Amino acid sequence: MSWWSRLGNVFRGNGMNRELDEELESHIEEAIEKGRDPAEARRAFGSALRNREESRDIKIFAWLDSLRADAILGWRRLRQQRITSAAAILSLALAIGACTSAFRLIDAMLLRPLPVSHPERLYIAERKGIDVTGHDRNSDAWEYPLFQQMRTAAEDQAELIAVSNAVPTDITYSSDQEMEKGYRQFVSGGMFGSFGLKPALGRLLTENDDLKPGAHPYAVLSYDYWKRRFGEDPKVLGRGLRIGNDLYTIVGVCGAPFTGTEPGTVTDIFVPTMMHPGVVQSDWEWFRTFVHFKRDGDIEPLREQLHAIMHAFDSERTRSFYGEPKELVDNFLKQKLLLEPAAGGASWMQDQYRRSLIALGVLVALVLLIACANVANLMTAQAASRAREMALRVSLGAGRRRLVQLMLIESAWIAFLASAFGGIFAWWSAPFIVSRINPPNNPARLVLPADWRVLGFAFALAAGVALLFGLEPALRASAVKPVSALKGGEDPHSRRRLMHGLIAAQVAFCFLVVFVSGLFVTTFERLSNQPNGFSAERLITLDTISQSKQPPAYWDQVAEHLRSVPGVEKVALCGWPLLDGNGWNGFISTNGESPSNQTLAYFLSVSPGWIDIMKIPLISGRDFLPTDVSPGVTSAPAGVAIVNEVFVQTYFKGENPIGRLFGKAGGTPGELRFKIIGVVGNARYRDIREPMTPTAYVPFHSIDANGSMRPQRAETFIVRTFTSNPLALASTLRQEVPRARPEFRVSNIRSQEQINQGNTVRERLLARLALFFATVALLIAGVGLYGVLHYSVLQRRREIGIRMAIGAQPARIARLVTLNILTMVFVGALGGIALGFASVRYISTLLYHVKPTDATILAVPLVTIAIVTILASLPAIIRAVRMDPVKILRSE
Amino acid sequence: MTKPDSLQGSLDLLVLKILSRKPRLHGYAIMSAIQEISCGVLRVEEGSLYPALHRMEEANWVRAEWITKESGRRTRVYELTAAGKKQLVAVEPRWRAVNSAVDRVLREV
Question: Under CATH, which number does the domain A491-532+753-892 receive?
Answer without folding.
Answer: 1.20.1050
